[in-house]
């Protein structure tokens, strides 16, 4: 029975997942014990099995198998689905009614890996809902149990997952859309053909599964990682471009001109579709989503609920409020009909359906959903949490006399008194970064406010 220091465990057990550098914080011994701890926790809640999937990183298959062995050692069976996107794992958790574990570090560089955990029905597990218990067991030591206690069975659910997603969105018949997709050498290289292939003229870019990310990082939130898709979309004469992150749970959209569409605008579009189908429904948005989203929800007669950033928080709020849809400016989109879980592919299907219904171009469709200018997420590397807190406090002090409202729901959010401008400064839950998001009615206001806040953050 292995024990670990509290500092070592807390280094990789984050707010809503487990994540670290392979060979340092994360290795097969660690994840085997994490599997045993997870199995023990789930067995105590009445579960009899767990579903396990992994992305295309070189370390993922071995880590996933070690975790599965740890779970099986606690007497639970394991459905091992192998290569999968994170939303396919969520589908499996719902379809099989089993807790799940997905091995991925999402958009992080190749050296990283981690585990996203959920209860049966894709119900989230975060620090306050199980991860802290797993961390405590890893510190104290988890008995391995009987290695023959549970069975590990290989299952392939890709086609079932793809068919289920397509069944959730009615796309009008007509001209087959030309869809350019940049998989970033991530899991969309496997799932995009399965989901979108039957309904679109798919134009693939970087579909080869390669966890070293040879072409660009699988993080479409960074504008540099969208350059290839922007050019490719125009060159292919595509109606739309789609970019996915490494585990393909986030989807970014490019219009026919090669221009990025704000994820907040996609939130507004999908919220609009849901409110037309279910008037008065509740929609979740996180605190860095554009003000255009709650404004549209109110205009359409819906109920907007603001929450902090992070999938476990959004999913919990979805369940608590009965919301039909939730969106984050980071391009995570959550759906009640998908177990309150996020799916970039399902969001893409909604955009394709709206595009087909409009009969026009994507740029025309999105006109009006994005009335504000945004900075995008700007990161400053500050590894010391005390220094991060000190910089946030300095920002709060600097804007105290100019703020109409200021809160600390997640980091620091400031709404200016003399403008419709606002900004948020928050610490990353997965990296040693302080993140800044700014929004204002004009680009000049965004640029001026961004420079001022960064001047405080970066000294």
UniProtKB/TrEMBL annotation:
The cross-references to CDD domains, in alphabetical order and at most eight, read:
PMM_PGM (cd03089)
Q: Which UniProt keywords apply?
A: Isomerase, Magnesium, Metal-binding, Phosphoprotein
Q: Which domain of life is it from?
A: Bacteria
- A GO molecular-function descriptor: intramolecular phosphotransferase activity
Q: Where is the Alpha-D-phosphohexomutase alpha/beta/alpha domain?
A: 12-129, 160-258, 264-371
Cofactors, names only: Mg(2+)
**Start and end residues of each Alpha-D-phosphohexomutase C-terminal domain:** 377-454
- GO:BP terms for this protein? carbohydrate metabolic process
Q: Which family does it belong to?
A: Belongs to the phosphohexose mutase family.
Q: What is this protein called?
A: Phosphomannomutase
Query: What gene does the UniProt entry assign to this protein?
Result: manB
């Amino acid at each position: 029975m292995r024990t670990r220091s509290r500092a070592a465990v807390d280094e990789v057990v984050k707010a809503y997942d487990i994540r670290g550098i392979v060979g340092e914080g994360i290795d097969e011994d660690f994840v085997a014990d994490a599997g045993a701890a997870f199995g023990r926790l789930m067995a105590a809640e009445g579960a009899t099995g767990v579903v396990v999937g992994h992305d295309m990183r070189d370390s993922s298959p071995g880590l996933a198998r070690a975790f599965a062995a740890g779970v099986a050692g606690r007497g639970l069976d394991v459905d091992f689905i192998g290569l999968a996107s994170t939303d396919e794992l969520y589908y499996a958790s719902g379809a099989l009614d089993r807790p799940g574990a997905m091995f991925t570090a999402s958009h992080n560089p190749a050296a990283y890996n981690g585990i996203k955990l959920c209860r049966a029905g894709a119900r989230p597990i975060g620090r306050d809902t199980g991860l802290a218990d797993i961390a405590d067991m890893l510190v104290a030591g988890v008995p391995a149990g009987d290695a023959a206690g549970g069975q590990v069975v290989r299952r392939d659910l890709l086609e079932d997952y793809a068919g289920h997603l397509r069944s959730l969105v009615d796309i009008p018949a007509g001209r087959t859309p030309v869809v350019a997709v940049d998989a970033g050498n991530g899991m969309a290289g496997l799932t995009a053909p399965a989901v979108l292939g039957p309904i679109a003229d798919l134009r693939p870019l970087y579909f080869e599964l390669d966890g070293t990310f040879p072409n660009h990082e699988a993080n479409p939130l960074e504008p540099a990682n969208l350059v290839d898709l922007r050019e490719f979309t125009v060159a292919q004469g595509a109606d739309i471009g789609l970019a996915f992150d490494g585990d393909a749970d986030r989807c970014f959209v490019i219009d026919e001109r090669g221009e990025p569409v704000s994820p907040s605008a996609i939130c507004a579009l999908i919220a609009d579709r849901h409110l037309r189908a279910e008037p008065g429904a509740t929609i979740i948005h996180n605190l860095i989503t554009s003000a255009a989203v709650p404004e549209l929800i109110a205009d359409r007669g819906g109920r907007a609920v603001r929450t902090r950033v992070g999938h476990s928080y959004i999913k919990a709020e979805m369940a608590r409020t009965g919301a039909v849809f939730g969106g984050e400016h980071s391009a995570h989109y959550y759906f009640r009909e998908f177990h309150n879980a996020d799916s970039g592919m399902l969001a893409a299907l909604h955009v394709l359906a709206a595009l087909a219904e409009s009969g026009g171009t994507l740029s025309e469709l999105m006109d009006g959903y994005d009335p504000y200018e945004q900075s995008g997420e700007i990161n400053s590397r500050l590894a010391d949490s005390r220094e991060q807190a000190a910089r946030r406090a300095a920002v709060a002090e600097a804007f105290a006399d100019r703020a109409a409202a200021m809160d600390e729901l997640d980091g620091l959010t400031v709404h200016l008194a003399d403008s419709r401008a606002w900004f948020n400064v928050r610490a990353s839950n997965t990296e040693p970064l302080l993140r800044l998001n700014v929004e204002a009615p004009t680009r000049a206001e965004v640029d001026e406010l961004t420079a001022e806040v960064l001047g405080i953050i970066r000294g």
